[in-house]
Write a structure and sequence with these properties.
This protein is α/β, with parallel strands linked by helices and 293 residues long. 49% of the residues lie in helices and 14% in strands. It has a single domain, classed as 3-Layer(aba) Sandwich (Rossmann fold). The strands form two sheets. Strands 3-2-1-4-6-7-9 form a seven-stranded parallel sheet, with helices on both faces. The protein has a two-stranded parallel sheet with strand order 5-8. Helix 2 packs across helix 8, helix 4 runs parallel beside helix 5 and helix 5 runs parallel beside helix 6.
């Protein structure tokens, strides 16, 4: 075997990633971390030209693909193109998604459904598209990018939180389904990171009900004011996801940021206190012992 053939075989052993939503922010940084780590990556975006610089930087290990995760034909085409370019698919990162600020009463049904189509149903469609190949190889890793709001819901972010809560549940159950097949699943919950989530990518409801101005209105302004000053570095998310991909037993959940850690601990403390306070009622729901079958 000559040196060129040996290098070609080594390249074939490099893990293959498909990442959704790579044009900016966390998705882009996950892609860069994987490429800098020596992996092969299919970078996807609705406008693939937005990732052409990464392909130019890593021409032997990167391809750019057009992908709208609400389009089933594009999903199938992206998976086929990835496997055609690299021979297989080892890691799927479901990152595509966007926020929606609104009171529940203000929410526009079509807008909310469109957000769920991207944030939740798009992730399901991607998972279903890659699982046949992963099951056949008995090898693969699925990473779903959730959010602090997938664990803690607050006024103004309720619809976005609901889409991420759903992704949390999906990930938890999916991990149990796939573990016997040798496949791994993680869900990552970033807190506030310096991306365009709170600016260009943020959607808002058009109706504005005055009664919610003191809550939702204030929340809108806080989100706008936070844009560009968030404490989290998106590059660190990329590094964390790359680290997870190399573990034999990655955690089901990984919280990223002191804010999400503090908020989750506070929620668990409150939840446990409520469980203890109402334990008697919780347990007093069965038939009397003499009436049990």
């Amino acid at each position: 075997m000559n040196k060129k053939e040996d290098m070609s075989e080594q390249k074939q052993d490099l893990p293959v990633w498909l990442i959704t939503g790579c044009s900016t922010g966390i998705g882009r940084e996950i892609a860069r971390a994987a490429l800098e780590g020596g992996e092969r990556v299919a970078l996807t975006a609705r406008k693939p030209e937005t990732v052409s610089d990464l392909v130019a930087e890593f021409p032997d290990r990167a391809v750019a693909l057009a992908l709208d995760v609400t389009d089933s034909e594009q999903i199938d085409a992206a998976v086929v193109a990835t496997e055609s370019a690299f021979g297989r698919l080892d890691v799927l990162v479901n990152n595509a998604g966007y926020g929606y600020v609104s009171a529940v009463e203000e929410g526009v049904d079509d807008d909310v459904r469109q957000m769920f189509d991207t944030n939740f149903f798009g992730a399901i469609a991607m998972i279903k598209a890659v699982l046949p190949g992963m099951r056949a190889r008995r090898s693969g890793y699925i990473v779903n990018i959730s959010s602090m709001t997938g664990l803690v819901s607050n006024p103004g972010n309720v619809y976005y939180s609901a889409s991420k809560f759903a992704l949390e549940s999906l990930s938890e159950g999916l991990a149990k389904e796939l573990m016997p097949l040798g496949l791994r699943v993680s869900v990552v919950e970033p807190g506030l990171f310096r991306t365009d989530w709170a600016s260009r990518s943020m959607h808002e409801s058009k109706p504005s009900i005055p009664d919610y101005e003191a809550t939702i209105g204030v929340r809108r302004e806080l989100i706008r004011a936070s844009s560009g000053g968030e404490p989290g570095d998106p590059r660190k998310v990329g590094e964390a996801v790359l680290m997870l991909s190399r573990l034999d037993s990655p955690p089901l959940r990984l919280l990223l940021g002191s804010d999400v850690l503090g908020a989750t601990r506070a929620k668990l403390t409150e939840f446990l206190a409520s469980m203890e306070e109402w334990e008697a009622v919780t347990l007093d729901v069965g038939f009397p012992e003499d009436e049990r079958g």
